[in-house]
Design goal:
By secondary structure, this protein is of the alpha+beta class. 47% of the residues lie in helices and 20% in strands.
Length: 987
């Protein structure tokens, strides 16, 4: 400015979160740019030559003070104008013109003129009137320019957000994506020097993801972790520790935060702005811009803008890492599916083998009854075995009655056609009989046994030999054998297991057949000798008694099988319930007697079955049962209830601490590693304890409560135990009662719709209502959804409740009236393909006007299934039902999709509305302004939710929001209130 006589000040606002350095408070000179002359020059042209002019004004709404002075104007004249801003002029002077007034927009204006000589009062009045009009016109022009600049800034911000959202969803590499984001930020502020860091608070380290600087030559290494302890004098580390934005010269920032100067961290900057990136309450990084040659580049507006952009950048980084994680998981899942497919094929083959085995067992059982002779029985057994494995060379060897010899009642062989009976010697068959275990041996194994002197081969040398012992009453009575003379045919361990299983049933069938034959023979002999020899009759009776004993033993064995688990040999559920009934009876008769039930479930047992097969799972179940038995006391009952569930009955205990100590001992025993199917497995279990109480009537009730306690332990993190207490019982009863009440309320009239008005912010005119769900509980009174929505979601009843609410809204619409009614639609409904058709049918059946109905949806419902959501919204819109996007601004996912959906209105979340007043005002104002800009671009309106104060209403109105909803305008009511009553309440 000419002569430097005047120094009018700077923009308003707090200069920095770091520095309290004083800034000049003079008034900023503003030349609007309308021609070459300033405002003061224009006013000076109507005055005599040599006159000096100073004009000042202050806008109270923005706090901006500005002015204009003619060339040569003195500082005294400027000071006089500043005095006139505070008070009106006193007296009249022929050599001066002074005036101060307030415009219709509330702007305070002062004019001070020093004349070269005396001027008539009439001339001064005329000039002053003209000057006031010129100043007012000038201020109007300045406001117009400010609005244009604000609109342009909002458009740039909106475009930047769209670009960042698109970059976040793109397939670009991380470095390329960050470079493009840098370009977007540079379009919003001075950002020639920018870097982005990520902070790991667990390892206390950071990584420079991106670094662009015109002076500092540092090259970012995104994959390199830098320990925080290695950077004690870094301003960036200080920013992460401080947790709030920092702005100002880097020297002043270091002084304030106590950071020493360190040349390794780059040169100092004239202005430095750093903003932390947050994920909830955790600092996870920062974005920094700086200027080396220009001070005061960044202010409050740049800080708020960079904070908003920083969260979008964090979201972009999260999406980038999420996409990488998704690709990795897809690859892992593909491999897992391939393995599952192979396991499934193996399971199919295994099941086919099991079916063949089952048929074979049924066939053997049938043969033991239907075969006319033992020779026929042996032949048919050979046919059954041939269906299961290679049995071209097959024989059955039995120990003679005197135990000294070996007989071959059946033999089919390619090379040894006849096998004659012999004394027991050292052959492979005798080796199996002596050891009582199956033997699978190839030529090399047979040679090794011979070299050790354990066996001596007889007959033709087999390439592969498999023999399985036959048992009767736990004694080896013979051997069933298959063998191969060809190297192309070998037997496997699976064949050994199969033949062993079949041999067990052959032993039973053989014993039954032999018993039948002996019985027939005995009866025949009895009929021949009954008339002649009483002694023979006694002998027959003795043999008959022996057979009866045999049958009794079989019956006892069947009874044992009925009361025990077939896999582990432990007592089953039936036997456990019998013992529990006895324990309950004893506890009721003996008041001092007490007991407890432990319910145990193996953790992640399905993973074993799915990964290594059901056979390995069975091995783990057997091993788990064995460990539990070893861990408990001798008199305790361990039962397998099915699957991977076990129960333990412990009697005669002194208190709950005994049960808990035993539970910990069982968990420790199960936690020891074991080898299953060639893999080391670390099993664990969750265990629930139910102590005896007189309220229990049956053992099933004890098992039920122990099961509930087990699920509590599993929910607490597995590999632990929990004791069933009254709190669990009361919570279970409460949830059960609430679910029953919910079902009764659905069939009755317990659910009602409450209506909250939606008004125009200018005049409080009601334009519609939102229907809110309430439950009029018969005992607890009026309940809001938060008190029963969890039970409704778990039981699947909440969708029926929604349709009850929709039906009441349709009846209200059918009664007529003005304005629309909006209903909330959860993502559950959008997953149903017939939701739109069902809603339209309900509107038609009620005779309601579809144009008065709105649906409120969330961003989750939009993005869950985009094609389906788009199809539903278009169907409803074609019939007049419009859609509103609820809780907008709480997420970022729908930003890049919003223009694709037919949305009629955005509802600004109440968290941003409440933030318009208070400490969070800059951030909330920036977010609401961005939402308004986005809505304006898309041609839709906005509704502010949760408006509770007049100050919030005014702030929303000033930011361009047209409509509002909240307690300021009316509380939810069961009936729609008349307009006059709402005005009285809100007024």
């Amino acid at each position: 400015m000419a002569g430097g006589a005047l120094s009018f000040g700077v923009r308003p606002g707090a200069p920095s979160a770091v520095s309290n350095r004083s800034r000049p408070k003079a008034v900023r000179i503003v030349d609007a740019g309308y021609g070459r002359d300033s405002l003061a020059d224009t006013l000076q042209e109507a005055l005599p030559p040599g006159a000096e002019v100073a004009v000042l004004w202050r806008d109270p709404s923005t706090g901006i003070s500005a002015g204009s002075a003619s060339p040569g104007a003195t500082s005294a004249l400027a000071s006089r104008a500043e005095v006139l801003l505070q008070r009106s002029p006193v007296g009249h002077h022929s050599h001066r013109i002074e005036s101060a007034w307030t415009t219709a927009e509330g702007v305070r204006v002062a004019i001070a003129v020093q004349l070269p000589g005396a001027v008539a009062a009439e001339v001064r009045e005329i000039w002053l009137t003209m000057a006031q009009r010129v100043v007012v016109s000038h201020l109007v022009a300045l406001r117009t320019l400010a609005r244009a600049e604000s609109l342009e800034k909002s458009e740039r911000l909106q475009q930047a957000l769209f670009e960042i959202a698109d970059l976040a969803g793109s397939d670009l590499e991380l470095a390329d994506m960050l470079r493009r984001i840098h370009t977007v930020v540079a379009g919003l502020m001075y950002a020639a020097n920018l870097y982005i860091v990520l902070y790991d608070d667990v390892r206390d380290s950071l990584r420079f993801l991106y670094f662009a600087d015109q002076v500092d030559t540092y090259v970012a290494e995104p994959e390199r972790d830098i320990a925080i302890d290695d950077m004690p004098n870094s301003v960036t580390v200080a920013l992460l520790r401080h947790g709030e934005p920092l702005q100002g010269p880097s020297e002043l920032i270091r002084d304030r935060l106590g950071v020493a100067r360190d040349a390794r961290h780059g040169p100092d900057s004239e202005d430095w702005l750093g903003v932390p990136m947050r994920r909830e309450d955790r600092i996870c990084g920062a974005i920094v811009v700086q200027s080396y040659d220009r001070p005061d580049v960044y202010g409050e507006e740049e800080r708020a803008l960079l904070s908003f952009v920083a969260q979008h950048i964090l979201t972009a980084l999260d999406r980038f890492h999420a996409r990488e994680e998704l690709e990795r998981r897809v690859e892992e899942r593909t491999q897992a599916l391939q393995l599952s497919n192979r396991d499934l094929q193996a399971e199919i083959i295994e099941r086919q083998r099991a079916e063949r085995l089952q048929r074979a067992l049924f066939r053997i059982a049938e043969l033991s009854i239907t075969s006319e002779t033992l020779e026929r029985f042996y032949t048919q057994v050979h046919d059954v075995v041939s269906d299961l494995l290679y049995a071209r060379n097959f024989y059955i060897a039995l120990v003679s009655d005197d135990g000294q010899g070996l007989e071959f009642p059946y033999s089919i062989d390619e090379r040894d056609a006849n096998r004659v009976a012999r004394k027991l010697a050292s052959g492979l068959t005798e080796y199996v009989i002596a050891r009582g275990r199956a033997l699978l041996a190839d030529r090399k194994r047979i040679a090794a046994l011979e070299s050790q002197g354990l066996v001596r081969s007889r007959g033709s040398l087999a390439h592969c030999w498999l023999g399985v012992p036959l048992f009767h009453n736990e004694s080896v009575v013979g051997v069933i054998t298959v063998q191969s003379y060809s190297p192309a045919i070998n037997f496997s361990v699976r064949d050994q297991e199969l033949l062993t299983f079949v041999a067990h049933h052959i032993s039973i069938g053989l014993a039954r057949k032999q018993a039948q034959d002996r019985l027939v023979s005995a009866h025949a002999e009895l009929e021949q000798r009954v008339d002649s020899r009483t002694r023979e009759l006694a002998q027959a009776n003795t043999e008959l008694l022996a057979q009866i004993g045999e049958r009794l033993r079989v019956e006892q064995q069947l009874t044992h099988q009925a009361m025990h688990d077939a896999l582990t040999g432990l007592p089953n559920r039936s036997q456990l319930l019998d013992r529990l009934a006895q324990a309950i009876t004893r506890a009721r008769s003996e008041q001092e007697s007490t007991f407890a039930v432990l319910f145990l479930d193996l953790d992640r047992f399905k993973l074993v079955n799915d990964s290594v097969g059901h056979s390995a799972g069975d091995e783990l179940l057997v091993e788990a049962g064995r460990r539990i038995v070893e861990a408990v006391r001798e008199d305790d009952t361990v039962a397998r209830l099915g699957g991977d569930e076990y129960a333990i009955l412990i009697e005669d205990i002194d208190g709950p601490e005994v049960a808990e100590e035993l539970a910990q001992r069982v968990l420790r025993a199960l936690g020891e590693p074991c080898w299953i199917a060639g893999r080391e497995v670390f099993p664990s279990a969750s265990l629930g304890i139910a102590l005896w109480h007189p309220r229990y009537r049956t053992g099933a009730e004890l098992l039920r409560d122990a099961d509930a306690a087990m699920y509590r332990a599993k929910a607490a993190g597995r590999d632990r135990c929990a004791v069933f207490d009254e709190a669990m019982r009361e919570e279970a009863v409460r949830i059960l009662d609430l679910e029953a009440d919910l079902r009764r309320a659905i069939n009755g009239d317990g659910f009602v719709a409450f209506y909250q008005p939606i008004v125009r912010l200018d005049d409080h005119r009601v334009i519609g209502h939102e229907a809110l769900l309430r439950w009029r509980h018969e005992r607890r009174g009026l309940l809001t959804p938060s008190e029963f929505i969890g039970v409704g979601e778990d039981s699947g009843l909440i969708e029926e409740v929604d349709w009850i609410l929709y039906g009441q809204v349709m009846e209200e619409l059918a009664r007529g009236g003005e304005g629309y009614i909006s209903v909330n639609v959860s993502p559950r409904h959008f997953r149903s393909g017939d939701f739109a058709d069902r809603l339209l049918r309900m509107i038609d059946d009620a005779g309601a006007d579809p144009h008065r109905l709105r649906i409120e949806i969330t961003e989750v419902a939009l993005l869950d299934d985009v094609p389906r959501a788009l199809r539903m919204l278009r169907t409803l819109r074609s019939h007049g039902v419009l859609a509103q996007l609820d809780d907008f601004g709480t997420g970022f996912s729908a930003l890049s999709y919003l223009h694709r959906f037919p949305i009629e209105c955005l509802k600004i979340d109440q968290s941003f509305v409440s933030g318009l007043i208070g400490d969070a005002q800059p951030e909330s104002v920036a977010v609401v302004r961005a939402i308004q800009a986005l809505a304006g671009t898309l041609g839709i309106h906005t509704i502010g939710e949760g408006v509770e104060t007049e100050a919030q209403r005014a702030a929303l109105r000033e930011l361009g929001c047209t409509y509002g909803q909240g307690y300021l305008f009316g509380y939810p009511a069961e009936r729609i209130q008349p307009q006059a009553l709402l005005r009285a309440v809100s007024g």
